Amino acid sequence: MIDEHCIFCKIIQGIIPSKKYFENDKFLAFFDINPIATNHVVFIAKNHYENLNEMPDGEWQQFMIEGRNVAEKLVKEINADGYNLMINQGRAADSLVNHRPHMHIIPRFFNDNIKIDPRN
Ligand SMILES: [Zn+2]
């Protein structure tokens, strides 16, 4: 399921270049083009859904498990102290790309002074 107007679908297809961090047959993680932290990654399913509740439950479970595993790997590699996982639904929640769910993986360090405000 691909939406030809979706920038994340274009990233999946390689039409828009990205710096990939992780990829398998179902999911992709790439570095955010407007990072709010070092190694801020966006984790997405390769299937395009407009809304969170359109993703089947089994795929949602895989998404959450794989996203957590990607976050753990990423954080260990850079010795971060923690991480935020953020999923936004709808424009009112600042979710501007209609490819959902997409999860921001934001590595965190003590005293990094980051205010969480993802905008894509
Ligand atoms: Zn898409």
CATH class type: Alpha Beta
Major sheet summary line: 5 strands, antiparallel
Tell the overall outline.
Answer: globular
How much of the polypeptide forms β-strand, as a percent range? 15-25%
Question: Radius of gyration, rounded?
Answer: 14 Å
Question: How many individual helices?
Answer: 2
Going by CATH, the architecture would be 2-Layer Sandwich
Give the % helix. 10-25%
The helix-strand sequence is: HEEEHEE
Q: N-to-C terminal Cα separation, in Å?
A: 21 Å
Task: Write the CATH homologous superfamily.
Answer: HIT-like
Brief sketch in words of this structure:
By secondary structure, this protein is α+β, with helices and mostly antiparallel strands. It has helices at residues 7-13, 57-78; strands spanning 20-23, 27-31, 41-45, 82-87, 102-108. The chain is globular and about 40 Å long.
Task: Describe the structure using short key phrases.
alpha+beta, 120 residues, five-stranded antiparallel sheet, binds zinc ion
Please, could you describe this protein's structure?
With 120 residues, the protein is an alpha+beta fold. It is 24% helix and 22% strand. It is built from 2 helices and 5 strands. It has a 5-stranded antiparallel beta sheet, with helices on one face. A hairpin with a 3-residue loop joins strand 1 (20-23) and strand 2 (27-31). The chain is globular and about 40 Å long. The two termini are 21 Å apart. Bound molecules: zinc ion (ZN).
